[in-house]
């Protein structure tokens, strides 16, 4: 699979996860933050998935898989512990649907990278299935480097960028400001307030 990274908007899109075990649970937890319409197909669920179902976070169909379960799906995740069932899911998937195969990444057309977020900042790591353990290690290293202070910093950068875009500055001056925001240290709240005040005065 020649995979490229993409950011995907799944809000209100139908995501069908077939399987109710630990791997399916991990996929569901990743999807929860996307605000997708999550449907889980499985005769049984882990205790955590059961709690999510009881809390109204997902729709559970307590049954074995059938091809009809995939109708109108935007994203399908084959995550059972039965190779024959996973193969049936892949064969039943409609054309042009997003398909993730947990058992065999190459059998689908998308992968779930290991990832973490700091507010508006999202960082993902993938080894294209070569070594999930290495991907997890790199993620841990990056999580230390890009710690919680980046949450407020990204909020500041977003607000500053909006002010710059709306300003009467020339295109080149806008680029200079945008570069300055990341080239210089603007992590301290006092410094951020000073920069925003400057930008407000340009309007």
UniProtKB/TrEMBL annotation:
Organism superkingdom = Bacteria
Quote the EC number.
1.3.1.76
Instruction: Determine if NAD is one of this entry's keywords.
Output: yes
Q: Which UniProt keywords apply?
A: NAD, Oxidoreductase, Porphyrin biosynthesis
Sequence ranges assigned to domain Siroheme synthase central in this UniProt record: 118-143
Q: Which reaction does it catalyse?
A: precorrin-2 + NAD(+) = sirohydrochlorin + NADH + 2 H(+)
Q: Which SUPFAM superfamilies match?
A: NAD(P)-binding Rossmann-fold domains (SSF51735), Siroheme synthase middle domains-like (SSF75615)
Does this UniProt record's set of keywords contain Heme?
no
First-level EC class? oxidoreductase
What pathway, per the record?
Porphyrin-containing compound metabolism; siroheme biosynthesis; sirohydrochlorin from precorrin-2: step 1/1
PANTHER family on file:
SIROHEME BIOSYNTHESIS PROTEIN MET8 (PTHR35330)
Check the record and name the NCBIfam families matching this protein: cysG_Nterm, PRK06718.1
User: Protein name, please?
Assistant: precorrin-2 dehydrogenase
